[in-house]
Amino acid sequence: MLIDIQNLVKDYQMDSVDVAALRGINLQVQKNEFVAIMGPSGSGKSTLMNILGCLDNPTSGVYRFNNTDVTGLNDDELSDIRNKHIGFIFQSFNLLKRMSALENVELPLMYAGIDKAKRMAMSKQALEKVGLADRMKHRPSELSGGQRQRVAIARALVNNPGMILADEPTGALDTTSSMEIMDVFKQLHTEGNTIIVITHEREIAACCKRIILIRDGLITSDTPNLN
Amino acid sequence: MQQIRDNITKAILSLIDHKFRSFLTILGIIFGTASVIAMISIGEGTKKQAIAKYQDLGVSNIIIRDKDMTDAELQTVRMKFSKGLSVEDAKVISDVVPGVVSVSPQSEMKMEAKVGDRSAKASVIGVTPNIVSILNYRTAKGDFLTTDQYDRQLKVCVLGASIARELFSYDEPVGKSVKVEDQWFEVIGVMQPKALFTETVGELASRDLNNDIYIPLSTFNKRIPKVNPFTSDVKQLTVKLGNSEQLLPAAVVVRSLLNRRHFNNDDFSIIVPYELMKQEEKETRIYNLLLLSIAAISLVVGGIGIMNIMLASVLERTQEIGIRRAVGGKKKHIMSQFVTEAVVLSVAGGIIGVILGVTLSLVISWTTAVQTTITLYSILMAFSFSVIVGITFGYLPAKQAANLRPIESIRHE
Q1: Chain A contact for B269, CB < 8 A?
Q2: Which residue is closest to A156 within chain B, CA to CA?
Q3: Which of B3, B13, B330 faces A79 most closely, judged by CB atoms?
Q4: B85 with B210, same domain?
Q5: What whole-number percentage of chain A has pLDDT above 70?
């Protein structure tokens, strides 16, 4: 089991009032699943994604990732997990502006302590995989939205993380680019990756194999997508 | 190692991306480093000049001067049995005072020297041949006075560098004759140029040694008539000791010895150049320390400049920090990235500052009367201090960057 969440609660303090973002989530995800998490804004789906991605700690509950309880890990250990096992994709791409596509993709490898030559080779391979072999030297500002998101995907999968977490990956893209990105995800899924997509768009969720609905910090439905 | 090299490359690229801002950031460090180097160079130069001055007088010498007195004073002193400084005094000091290597008596008089239709005012100095070893005198051409010439009271002379030039222009002086007042002297040598000493040392009035004409003391006493019959035979005794530790005890002995021989007339003064040098060194040290602390303060101000800009840079790059953290960058990675930038900045500032400081010192040397001496230690000190300042003031912004929470910073626009 890749993800095993038991009774997960996350409270935020806002103006000295506790706001419950997650109110007892139970969720299991197996390896090589393709999951969509849907919900209106404020439902807690982004909070869930932060915790799934080891960017944030829950207030209470258990989160086992790869059979390891990550709730008790310190900052360095969480960084290691993000680095080696999780690939992030964000709505706003979050590429480093002053770096080329290739350098952006190299970033996780740099923190993994891999040497320059190997980094280059792995990054090139990842960019080829997302169809950007001819754009490696370009800076993000010289790329279209769809291309930028593909650079971000290359960065997410360059370390062979096993799990890709995508937070509204098509939120800033037009329909054609969105479908292209989803095609890349489908491809990655058939290659054995676990993919979790957070979205509020039905068309995007429709591409996934399992759809989870969240409302007011609770999972209200969890159904396989048979299409 | 790989990590460090990557960091440095990244830091340089990032700073080049903001050339103007980076330059403004390190301006303080540049001026701080440059002023530290310039201050130390001026200090060292002044010290060296002072030391050169005392070295001309000999750091293991005691100088005894006959006091300048009015005719009336002189008469009083003679009535009280003192003959003033004499060649006998020299002999007694040489025989009695422990540690004395040699003693050279000398007489002096300002006189008019002539060659053809050229003439110049010169200090005619009657010396004993051993003055050469006492004061490190060297001739540029010909030879200095010999014992033989001294014993035979010959009318020979050695010219100082400037007086030789004035009297002979570019002609060869050795072998020619100079007329001093109404006496002819054969030139047997020309001295090497001496450092000018333009300040009074103790009770020793400043004198341009390059304007001296040296003749044997024996000849001086025989040929040059005294203006006042009461004038002492000898104007100065230069006493050379084996080493500088013997100076003070020897000076005490010399004083009591001469007091006895001069019947406590207090008609001479004793100058110990080494002691004066030590004292001046002490004074300049305080002055240098003051200059240096001003320069150091400017470096610290430069460091605060770095900190300000780095803090602004952390704020501006919050999202970048968030992204780096999300893909697995640890706190220490972020920390070292920002510290490296601060270090690269301050190293660059240090290097430019060193170049500027050295240039400044040279320009000061060329364009003003102030002598500067650039020392390696000043360069190393200024440079390492600027780097330390960079690290110190880069630490706080780096710490702040590392402690940003990844989820918040990644959404920061």
Answers
A1: no
A2: B327
A3: B330
A4: yes
A5: 100
Where among B235, B266, B297 does a domain terminate?
Answer: B266
Q: B236 and B111 in one domain?
A: yes
Q: Does B181 touch chain A (CB under 8 A)?
A: no
The predicted model gives B188-195 an average pLDDT of: 87
Is residue B55 within 8 Å of B396, Cβ to Cβ? no
Q: Does residue B362 lie within any of the structural domains?
A: yes
Q: Is residue B306 a part of any domain in this protein?
A: yes
Q: Which residues contact B169 (CB under 8 A, 6 or more apart)?
A: B118
Q: Where are the domains of chain A?
A: 33-57+82-224
B59 in a domain, yes or no? no
C-alpha–C-alpha distance, residues A47 and A216, integer Å = 12
B327 vs A50, A88, A98: nearest CB: A88
CB A122 within 8 A of CB A101: no
**Are B399 and B321 contained in the same domain?**
yes
Longest alpha-carbon distance in chain A: 52
pLDDT at B246 over 70: yes
Choose which CATH entry (2.40.128.50, 1.25.40.10, 3.40.50.300, 3.10.350.10) describes domain A33-57+82-224.
3.40.50.300
B86 touches B268 (CB < 8 A): no
pLDDT more than 90, % of chain B:
32
Intervals of chain A under pLDDT 50? none
B340, amino acid identity: T
Q: Where are the alpha helices (DSSP H) in B159-272?
A: 161-168, 217-223, 247-261
Alpha helix (H) ranges present in A53-115?
75-85, 101-111
Residues B373 and B404 in one domain: yes
pLDDT, tens only, A29-58: 999 999 999 988 888 888 899 999 999 889
For testing contact with chain A, the best of B327, B334, B336, B340 (most A CBs within 10 A): B327
pLDDT at B413: 67
CB contact residues (below 8 A), chain B span 370-409, against chain A: 406-407
List the single residue in B with minimal CA-CA distance to A155. Answer: B327
DSSP secondary structure letter of residue A141? G
On the question of pLDDT at B22 being above 70, the answer is yes
Each residue of B311-368: pLDDT tens digit?
Answer: 888 888 899 999 999 999 999 999 998 888 888 888 899 999 999 999 999 999 899 8
Q: Answer whether B369 touches A (CB < 8 Å).
A: no
Domain interval for residue B112: 68-266
**Overall number of domains in chain B:** 2
Contact predicate B61/B327, CB 8 Å: no
The residue out of B215, B244, B266 marking a domain boundary is B266
Asked whether residue B197 falls in the same domain as residue B235, the answer is yes
Whether B152 and B252 share a structural domain:
yes
